[in-house]
Amino acid sequence: MSSVNEIRMAIEGLSAGDRQALLGWLLDADRQIWDRQIVEDFAPKGPGARCLADVDQQIRTGNFRPL
Fold first, then answer.
1. What does the alpha-carbon distance between residue 14 and residue 6 come to, in Å, rounded to a whole number?
2. What is the pLDDT of residue 66?
3. CA distance linking residue 56 with residue 67, whole number of Å
4. Global pTM?
5. Residue 47: burial class (beta carbons within 10 Å; 0-12, 13-18, 19+)
6. Whole-number pLDDT of residue 1
7. C-alpha angle 27/33/35, rounded to 5°?
8. Amino acid 38: pLDDT
9. Which residues of the chain have pLDDT under 70?
10. How far are the Cα atoms of 19, 55, 65, 66 from residue 13, in angstroms, in the given order?
11. Strand, helix or coil at 28?
12. Which of 22, 35, 52, 67 has a CA positioned 20 to 30 A from the CA of residue 58?
């Protein structure tokens, strides 16, 4: 299968149980990708690292309001 349309047609041919299993797998795979991206973004040299450093500095200096 090489196109989205072919995959869609194959999914439509699955039983309800197999579609449910596929959905669970897709959701889990998506969560894992999201989790890896968050870890990478907030790693020491990631794009979110500066934001975390700024928040830490604000906390250390008392320049914040607790939620």
1. 13
2. 81
3. 15
4. 0.65
5. exposed
6. 62
7. 100
8. 95
9. 1
10. 9, 51, 54, 52
11. helix
12. 35
Show the tokens assigned to 32. Answer: 């894992």
Q: In this structure, are residues 42 and 49 in contact, taking their beta carbons and an 8 Å threshold? A: yes
| Residue linked to tokens 């041919």 | 13
Q: Are 36 and 28 in contact (CB under 8 A)?
A: no
Q: Residue 30 is inside which H or E element, if any?
A: helix 16-41
11 Cβ contact partners less than 8 Å away, ≥ 6 residues apart: 19, 22
Q: How far apart are CA 41 and CA 47, in angstroms?
A: 5
pLDDT at site 48: 94
Selection from 28, 19, 9 nearest residue 1 by Cα: 9
